[in-house]
Amino acid sequence: MITDDIAEFAAALPTFGAVAGLDLGTKTIGVAVSDTMRGVATPIETVKRKKFTLDAEALLKIIRARDVKGIVLGLPRNMDGSEGPRAQSTRAFARNLAQLTDVPMGFWDERLSTVAAERALLEADTSRRRRAEVIDHVAAGFILQGALDRLRHLKGGFDG
Q1: What is the pLDDT, as a whole number, of residue 36?
Q2: What is the pTM of this model?
């Protein structure tokens, strides 16, 4: 199942279990995973892209090892909200990945997630070289945290 509707995605998830966030780039895939209560997103690694089958294999290995119950993919919309080639590529990746796993997938607007990640890394006085190494999975963390906050709000949580 793949959906743009976060409420539909939430309904497809079991009550507990980790959710993964993916930041799909042309050269890398940033990966973040939540705790089982879905409160906190933790950036875990960046997968170097090769070809789809190898990329999917690497992601599915992480998903199985961490018993992930859902996947949130950052959808790179244009600033006006329209979708360009990168968003279409992300949707195609999700369709292909959905053929290999039954884990529900949802999209999350990722506009400015990389900017936020870069700002956080700069504030942490991270070197330019280190920022380049971690920016993608930190951005995946921002994407996933946004989705987790929305999921909690849908459940009637206290996130405001």
Answers
A1: 94
A2: 0.83
- SS3 (DSSP) at 89: helix
Q: DSSP label at 38? A: S
For residues 95 and 84, the answer to whether their CB atoms sit within 8 Å is no
- Position 81 scores a pLDDT of 78
DSSP string, 105-159: EEEEE-TTHHHHHHHHHHHTT--HHHHHHHHHHHHHHHHHHHHHHHHHHHTT-S-
pLDDT (0 to 100) of residue 21 = 96
Each as own residue / partner, the long-range contacts of residues 12-17 (CB below 8 Å, 24 or more positions apart, any chain) are 12/70, 12/104, 13/69, 13/70, 13/104, 13/151, 14/69, 16/69, 17/67, 17/68, 17/69, 17/70
- Grouping H, G, I as helix, E, B as strand and the rest as coil, residue 50 is coil
Q: What is the amino acid identity at position 116?
A: A
Rounded Cα–Cα distance for residues 109 and 130 (Å): 26
Q: What is the pLDDT of residue 3?
A: 92
CA–CA dist 69, 78 (Å, integer): 29
Q: What residues in the chain have per-residue pLDDT under 70?
A: 111-118, 121-122, 130-135, 156-160
- Rounded to an integer, what distance in angstroms lies between the CA atom of residue 77 and that of residue 109? 7
